[in-house]
Amino acid sequence: MTAWEITRHEMALGVAQLAPHASVPRWALDDAFESPFWSVTRTADELSVICAWEALPGTVTGVGPMVAFSLDGPLDHSLIGVLAGLLAPLADAGISILAESTFDTDWILVPATQADQAVTAWRQAGHTVTHEEQR
Q1: Which long-range contacts link 110-115 to residues 24+ away (Cβ below 8 Å)?
Q2: What is the Cα–Cα distance from 118 to 91, expressed in whole angstroms?
Q3: pLDDT of the residue at 135
């Protein structure tokens, strides 16, 4: 098993679901929030927005707050089983997740109420978890 270095980001994030043909809302891109991560994904069924929890208006379907963890990268694109290895300890601990991948790395969002449990599960599995302000 590979031991990974993971960074915990402190800003709370939220995930919103909008209609599939909705425009990307301005609140999702608000620079007033220095979010470590945001994402807009469109499928045939929905437009999903991940952004600062505080930016989500109460009028949208959403979940959160979530805490983001990033795998220290960049990762080689030929690696196999990275997410599987990171998510198994969380599944064993009963922690739900939302995973997003970027070109360089993987991001794992967990409910804020379970963030400390996620850190414990990863450390017990041999991974290193640091807080972004410690970097």
Answers
A1: 110/66, 110/67, 110/69, 111/64, 111/65, 111/66, 111/67, 112/12, 112/64, 112/65, 112/66, 112/67, 115/8, 115/67
A2: 10
A3: 47
Helix-helix angle 115-124:82-92, to 10 degrees: 110
Q: Which residue numbers in the chain have pLDDT < 70? A: 1, 74-76, 78-81, 134-135
Instruction: List domains and CATH numbers for the chain.
Output: 5-126 (3.30.2130.10)
Quote the pLDDT of residue 118. 98
Residues in the chain: 135
Tell how far CA 93 is from the center of its chain.
Answer: 17
Q: Is 50 exposed, middle or buried (0-12, 13-18, 19+ CB in 10 A)?
A: buried
Which pLDDT score, from 0 to 100, does residue 38 have?
87
Token readout for 114 is 């379970």
The residue with tokens 């080689």 is 76
